Amino acid sequence: MGSLFRAFVVIVLVLVPLSQARSASDAGQFVSEFADKAIALVSDKSLSTAERREQFGTLVETYFDMPGIGRFLLGRYWRTASEKEQDAYLKAFTENIVYTYSRRFDDYDGQKLVVDGTRDDGRFDIVSSRIVDSKSNQEYRLDWRVIDEGGSQKIVDVVIEGVSMSVTQRQEYASLIQSNGGRVQALIDALNRQMAGVRASDS
């Protein structure tokens, strides 16, 4: 459970009733909709691998603020990157996340996502949940950060067992860039190499 999107693709999907507060009916329902569509996708055996990849990408980009997450992960280096580098980075980041973690649909083995409630946290609504694995009797706490700007909701982070996956990934990206003389292009190259490796292993 140590990666931002690994948590998403093992989700499923017995949702306990939420309170009637605004956050619950909005943010909670938003997460519920994502979960419903994720499980429908993983359960559809008629789809080819390529079709599943494509539909997972659409699902992620619909429910997650990928440009916003990408900018946050790049941190202060977003401002120092050229426009060309920003575009190349967001493309590489999004493709890498979607392709790599869509493969992990195969990890699903009956885990369930139980939503415990929703609370307002200023700019965000926090949807609190647990991933329950009945086979191992293990549970993992999972909080979804949902933002609503102008009536458009997006998931912007997932906190697993108290650890923000976005913050963790941001630190890894910063370390890689710093070790390469502050060059954002080094991160772009690394993401593209990783993508090439994943595609090769999938062929």
Describe this structure as you would to a colleague.
By secondary structure, the protein is an alpha+beta fold. It has a single domain (6-202), classed as Nuclear Transport Factor 2, Chain: A (Roll), CATH 3.10.450.710. It has helices spanning 6-9, 22-43, 49-63, 66-74, 77-80, 83-102, 165-178, 184-202; strands spanning 112-121, 124-133, 138-149, 152-160, 163-164. A five-stranded antiparallel β-sheet has the order 1-2-3-4-5. Strand 4 (152-160) and strand 5 (163-164) form a beta hairpin. Helix 4 (66-74) crosses helix 6 (83-102) and helix 6 runs parallel beside helix 8. The two termini are 26 Å apart.
In short:
By secondary structure, the protein is α+β, with helices and mostly antiparallel strands.
Overall radius of gyration: 17 Å
Query: Could you name the ranges where pLDDT drops below 50 across 5 or more consecutive residues?
Result: 1-24
Count of structural domains: 1
CATH superfamily placement: Tgt2/MlaC
* CATH fold assignment: Nuclear Transport Factor 2, Chain: A
Helix fraction by DSSP (H/I, runs of at least 4): 40-55%
Helix and strand sequence: HHHHHHEEEEEHH
Structural class: alpha+beta
- Which sheet architecture does the biggest sheet show? 5 strands, antiparallel
Total number of β-strand segments?
Answer: 5
Query: Spatial order of the strands in the main sheet?
Result: 1-2-3-4-5
Can you tell me the overall shape?
A: globular
User: Can you count the helices?
Assistant: 8
How many angstroms separate the termini? 26 Å
